Amino acid sequence: MFKIPKEYIADLLLLSVTIFWGSTFIVVKRSIEIMPTFAFLSIRFWISTLLLVLIFHRKLKLLNKKTLRDGIILGVVLFLAYAFQTVALEYSKATIVGFLTGLNVIFTPILSAIIIRKIPTIYSQIGAVLAFVGMAMMSFNNFTPSFGDILAIICAIFVAIQIVLTDKYSRRNDTYLLTVIEIAVLAVLSTVVSVLREPYIIPHKISGYLIFSFLITAVFATVYAFVVQNTAQKYTTPTKTAIIFIMEPVFAAIFGYLLGNEVLTAKAYAGAFIMFIGLFISELGPLVIKR
User: Which of 1, 76, 216, 219 is the most exposed place for a label (fewest CB within 10 A)?
Assistant: First the structure.
């Protein structure tokens, strides 16, 4: 009987995460037009934290200082990524922010080699280059990035750091506890920033769209996504994770078109195709050569 390697199962699960993340760009952009940015993030992550605690409450008694420390570090890095990304959405199109966030595919191999001394395979390197070329074709029409574009690029750097640190910390901690702490830190920091710079946290009127938005972002794009990421990354590499996550802007473009009527050019679609080729080379290159 043919047995699928754990690495490929992990990669498929990570790809499912990118679908949920890609769908949230246009949803979040519309939501922060209704309520303050960090107020939205605060409610989203508190809902996620509550769900995680309810699901994994029996594991909390196993929490130790090392897991707490690693979870806090991941939470702070991830908060910075979300903060820069969400504020970028105030100044740029959801599709463009999604593409620029994908720059982490270039930063991740570099940081992986520096931080955890893990050199990506030649297939992952080729895949990363192709993913970057495809992303550039989808993103750039000129060389004058806006303020929102710059924030999105900074976000990509923190995303890369989070991917590399998750690879390191997920191998030495209970991944479920790690996720609980990580998301709880997001909730706390979002609330602090909201209290300091925004007029309110709880919106005066909860619309049906906000309820839908919190459901999608808290349950699927946070609880499911980070439980999967923190668990699946034990069975794959940071560079492959980044290449898989580069599909996020592709799904952001799809949902941006379906939900926000954000239309792409022919060059952008060609770029998306090149990104898929890069993903396939990264995934299937070693298997083809082996056979």
Answer: 1
